[in-house]
Design a protein that fits this description.
Order of helices and strands: EHHEEEEH
Radius of gyration: 12 Å
Shape: globular
Structural class: alpha+beta
Largest sheet: 5 strands, mixed
CATH topology: YaeB-like fold
CATH class: Alpha Beta
Strand content: over 45%
């Protein structure tokens, strides 16, 4: 859970997280303390957090929908294109 709210993962998100070595703990961390947050559309958000993986900086991007019960994670990915995503904030 994140901030006492339920976190539900789509099957797509779980597959992408597994392929990209992203943990549920990392997702919870970004939901609680994002470095940036953009509302993409009504109720759909993009949260970003700078992380270090294999001694290299990446931006962890989490796309989710906010619901009354909590969060529905749509997808998550790491990108080295940090400036591209930070410009969107």
């Amino acid at each position: 859970m994140s901030n006492g709210r339920m976190v539900v993962y789509s099957q797509h998100a779980l597959n992408q997280m597994r392929e990209r070595d992203i943990s549920k703990r990392e997702i919870s961390f970004i939901l609680n303390k994002p470095d940036g947050l953009v509302e993409q559309s009504s109720g759909k958000f993009q949260a970003v957090k700078l992380v270090i993986k294999n001694s290299r900086p990446f931006l962890l991007v989490v796309i989710y929908r906010q619901t009354d019960a909590g969060y529905r994670i749509i997808t998550a990915f790491l990108t080295s294109k940090i400036n591209k995503y930070l410009k969107q904030l």
